Amino acid sequence: MGIRKKTTKTPPVLSHEFVIQNHADIVSCVAMVFLLGLMFEVTSKFAVLFITVQYNVTISTSGPEETPVNHFHHGIKDLATTFFYMLVAIIMHAIIQEYVLDKINRKKHFSKTKHSKFNESGQLSAFYLFSSGWGASILMSENLLSNPVSLWEGYPHTLMPFQMKFYFICQLGYWLHALPELYFQKTKKEDIPRQLVYIFLYLVHIAGAYILNLNRLALVLLVLHYVVELLFHMSRLVYFSNETRQSGFTLWAVLFVLCRLLTLSLSVLTVGFGLATSENQGFDLSAGNFNVIFVRITVLAAICLTQAFMMWKFINFQLRRWREHGLTQNLKKKQVPAKSKSKKDKANGVNGVNTNGADSPRAKKEKSS
Hints:
- With about 375 residues, this protein is mainly alpha-helical.
- Helices cover about 70% and strands about 5% of the residues.
- A two-stranded antiparallel sheet has the order 1-2. Strands 3-4 form a two-stranded antiparallel sheet.
- β1 and β2 (about 70) form a beta hairpin.
- Mean pLDDT is about 85; it is low at about 1-5, about 350-360 and about 360-369.
């Protein structure tokens, strides 16, 4: 899958510029090696570790007709699968950038600042739209919304359906791919710390919930968060096309606060009350049970600190917007008297002479004196 950028000058092979321009082709070749490995018996067992979801467990359902159902649990082999789908995320990132965002950038002629923000919002909008839709379908199929007690009932939730496990593998792969993308996209040095912070937060929370078997709670919270973030980045894309359209930010601000409150409520309800009153208490690594008070306090502290950090960033963002809006209004107020004064001068005449050639009353008075 070749994705080439049009350049007039070819950089030296294996130089930084060569790798950046052709990183999608290079990554595609690496992914193709794993796919070709499935064709040969010698390498198929190794290639399967990277491509297919591991740790399959078949369970027969109780009833008149026993039907086998496949479930999955997590393990160390998931690192190989996550690595492969990280490569897939890099390829998809390059496709969206080359065939969608770059074409829009060439038409709109954005400034350098808007260009980088537009690319960021475009990529994240596509990811949030796909992830929120996929996650919502899993919630509906597993009846997690209609039965909130299932978020903690029957913990530890070591067995997952295929869709849920594959969802978490893809989530980890996507946020891991964001690290090399900082190099491939030539991210500015001042923007790197900000992006590293939110990449780190995503990886810690998703991987932590996946390892601690809190996948049901994590799925609900991820869908809530992704829907709100999708609205923000879509609003920013609309704002870049027309700066007068800012109503989306107002709706996002309301939903952002509600999402933070709902996240805290569900987390406290599930971890603080549901797991705390569960009969299956104790620490058992082999059984995947982490229902001890230290783990529960750590999970709640991590969630609460993250929500507090996000609210602090949100408040600073809103204050900055209000400050910029106030400065804009003050500039407009200063410009209005100047324009009205210039119109009055034109009506009275410039330098005592009217536009029709006759002297103004002020000029006549000066002549008589």
